[in-house]
Amino acid sequence: MRFAVAHKTASYLMVGFAYLAMTTGGALSPMLSLGGLLAFVASWWWEPPRIRYERWALAWTIASAFALIYAILTAIVTGDFLGVGGQFLIWLVVAKSFNRRAARDWQQLYLLAFLMLVAGSVLNPELTYGLCFLGFVISSTWAMTLFHLRRE
User: Fold this and answer.
1) What stretches of the chain adopt beta strand conformation (E)?
2) Which of 2, 14, 97, 142 holds its CA 20 to 30 A away from the CA of 65?
């Protein structure tokens, strides 16, 4: 296994465990959770030479602006700030995973994964959170170690 693939695998496992920790509690819409998970998995193959990031940058920016406006308005109307924040985190992880180019993008993905884990501690009161937390701790150790080695 190549080093870059090992880093990518560990990073995707880390984000995947955080994603599951937040979404398996049932507080978020099942359709949104499944759609976000499928999009996150599809982002694995979204990289050069298959695509050119420059062609998609404007579309991702516009979609992110609409997602932010929708999240703010929905949170104000419903008063469910944590649930809407979790939904917006799903969007941010999908958008960032489709637009990972440099080391800072991986770092931002790690930060979003940690925020998902924190949100999951409130949104998921079940035992699955503990299992996902354990997977997150193990995979994040590997991901950050490999990230540091890759960057150096």
Assistant:
1) none
2) 14
